[in-house]
């Protein structure tokens, strides 16, 4: 019995060692090839402290658009130092009535913290159950990886939030844009969404879709 326990401990240690990082970091090289695990590593001799700092989140984004909102991402390779570390973040600016439409991040879960204003946020599980919460300053909410979710400014003034992701490249797909901002034939959109021809063409016109 003791031998079995010892073997188990040794195997656990070997397993942990084999999956441990073999280098301190892998600063993204945007000129190199990209793989599912991230960007190629920059030559360590060319890495500086600037690769591990990002200053883009201190400025409000432009909310003069159809969704009255702006997302400022700090993802790889823009924030080169986070490449391969399994983290990233972004700033959300929402004008009054602004919304981050239903979307998904296929590569990461998300945690949001409200800095200013009131945000109605929620996600839909794979069982189509809705989890909805009104968040005030200082409140947080988590959105599981791959699930549709949204954020809406439900207050009377501008709202600000910061979000963190469990990946340096979480990915993004916005449902409305996926359906109505491309050249997917209108008849297919109608057949798969049960919307009328007039409704589909109106939404394509608003979001820039064709066909």
UniProtKB/TrEMBL annotation:
Signal peptide start and end residues: 1-20
Alphabetical keyword list: Apoplast, Disulfide bond, Glycoprotein, Manganese, Metal-binding, Secreted, Signal
SMART domains associated with the record: Cupin_1 (SM00835)
Principal localisation: secreted
Residue numbers binding oxalate: 105, 110
InterPro entries: Cupin_1 (IPR006045), Germin (IPR001929), Germin_Mn-BS (IPR019780), RmlC-like_jellyroll (IPR014710), RmlC_Cupin_sf (IPR011051)
PROSITE patterns: GERMIN (PS00725)
Binding positions (Mn(2+)): 103, 105, 110, 149
Cupin type-1 domain residues: 55-201
Cysteines joined through disulfide linkages: 26-41
MF term (GO), any: manganese ion binding
Gene Ontology, cellular component aspect: apoplast; extracellular matrix
Location in or out of the cell: Secreted, Extracellular space, Apoplast
Pfam family, one: Cupin_1
Homology family: Belongs to the germin family.
Protein name as annotated: Germin-like protein
């Amino acid at each position: 019995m003791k031998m079995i326990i010892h073997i188990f401990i040794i195997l656990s240690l070997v397993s942990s060692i084999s999956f441990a990082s073999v280098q301190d970091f892998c600063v993204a090289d945007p000129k190199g090839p990209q793989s599912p695990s991230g960007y190629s590593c920059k030559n360590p001799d060319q890495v500086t402290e600037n690769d591990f700092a990002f200053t883009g989140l201190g400025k409000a984004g432009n909310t003069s658009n159809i969704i009255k909102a702006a997302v400022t991402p700090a993802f790889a390779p823009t924030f080169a130092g986070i490449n391969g570390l399994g983290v990233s973040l972004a700033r959300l600016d929402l004008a009054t009535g602004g919304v981050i439409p239903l979307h998904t991040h296929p590569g990461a879960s998300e945690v949001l913290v409200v800095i200013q204003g009131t945000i109605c946020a929620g996600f839909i599980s794979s069982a189509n159950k809705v989890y909805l919460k009104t968040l005030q300053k200082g409140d947080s909410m988590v959105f599981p990886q791959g699930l549709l979710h949204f954020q809406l400014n439900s207050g009377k003034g501008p709202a600000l939030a910061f979000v963190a992701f469990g990946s340096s490249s979480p990915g993004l797909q916005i449902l409305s844009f996926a359906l109505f901002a491309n050249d997917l034939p209108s008849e297919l959109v109608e057949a798969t969404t049960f919307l009328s021809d007039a409704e589909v063409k109106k939404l394509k016109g608003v979001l820039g879709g064709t066909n």
